[in-house]
Amino acid sequence: MLNVIHFIYVALTWILWLYSLFIVIDAILSWVPMLSNSVIGRFLDKIVNPYLNLFRKGPFAKLAYSTGIDISPIIGLFILYFVQNYVLFWIFNILLRVLG
After folding, report:
1. pLDDT tens per residue across span 13-67
2. If you write DSSP's letter for every residue of 10-65 in order, what string do you get?
3. In whole angstroms, what is the distance from residue 72 CA to residue 69 CA?
4. Rounded to whole angstroms, how far apart are CA atoms 62 and 27?
5. What is the DSSP letter of 90?
6. pTM summary value
7. What's the total number of domains in the chain?
């Protein structure tokens, strides 16, 4: 049972790391319109934009509109980092204590 929990923890950590990488690549591709409109750019947009659109509302939208700088990838990466390194660790630590 402990091996299954460890496998799930490692898999979720890896998935969150990969998604963070997709966010960084999408942000870099957005600087070059030709790359952003490529097949890879459109694929990454479909994967990343639903998550980043959560942070493109309210005061962050006003900031992006007035300065032209979209900080939603930075906020999204910080939240993914927090979930990956703290929340998952806490959850699986509790599961190991309860089941182990």
Report:
1. 999 999 999 999 999 999 998 988 999 999 999 999 999 999 998 887 887 778 8
2. HHHHHHHHHHHHHHHHHHHHTTSHHHHTSHHHHHHHHHHHHHHGGGSSTHHHHHHH
3. 9
4. 19
5. H
6. 0.88
7. 1
Give me the domain span that covers residue 24. 1-99
Sign, CA dihedral 18-23-24-28, equals positive
Q: Which amino acid is at 74?
A: I
Is the Cβ–Cβ distance between 56 and 27 less than 8 Å?
no
Phi, psi of 38 (to 5 degrees): -75, 175
Tokens read off for 43: 């694929």
Rg over alpha carbons for the chain, rounded to the nearest Å, is 17
Instruction: For tokens 């703290």, name the residue.
Output: 86
